[in-house]
Write a structure and sequence with these properties.
The chain has two helices and nine strands. Strand 4 and strand 5 form a beta hairpin. It is 14% helix and 34% strand. The relative contact order is 0.25.
């Protein structure tokens, strides 16, 4: 009985270390961190997630060329990935600006009024929100 436990424990350890034959046949998964941040793009730290049950939302947005979005704010942390095009984001107060291009990411602001403007090409982006059920993703200002 002790020998069986020893063999099972040894097999588990070898498997965890990547020494099993099954692990050698498993395709390698590439991993790249696109964004990891404790603060929004203007340097403001994220204080907390909303209280309550979590609700994750992932949107794919397509914004036409030469479009200026209205001033707005977000009540929860969110992050964007620029799939195509060029987007300039700016704050209402202080006039901070940042231009993002294809393949770049953005840690969005929470509670700060801002807007985005596209260039001469449409913009496609993925935006991930970490909120709670019933919470609006943005508020107009």
């Amino acid at each position: 009985m002790n020998t069986l436990k020893y063999l099972i424990a040894t097999a588990a350890c070898l498997s965890a270390l990547g020494c099993s034959s099954q692990m050698k046949n498993t395709p390698q998964i590439e991993r790249e961190i696109l964004l990891q941040s404790r603060e929004s793009w203007d340097g403001t730290p994220y204080n907390a997630y909303p209280a309550g049950a979590p609700e994750l939302t992932l949107l794919k947005l397509k914004i036409p060329a030469n479009t200026q979005l209205p001033w707005h704010s977000h009540p929860m942390p969110n992050a964007a990935y620029i799939v195509s095009g060029e987007l300039t984001v700016e704050t209402r107060e202080g006039g901070l600006k940042r231009t993002l291009k294809q393949g770049q990411t953005l840690a969005e602001m929470v509670g700060t009024v801002h807007r985005g403007t596209t260039g001469d090409a449409p913009v496609e982006l993925l935006v991930f929100y970490a909120g709670e059920p019933g919470m609006a993703l943005s508020h107009p200002h």
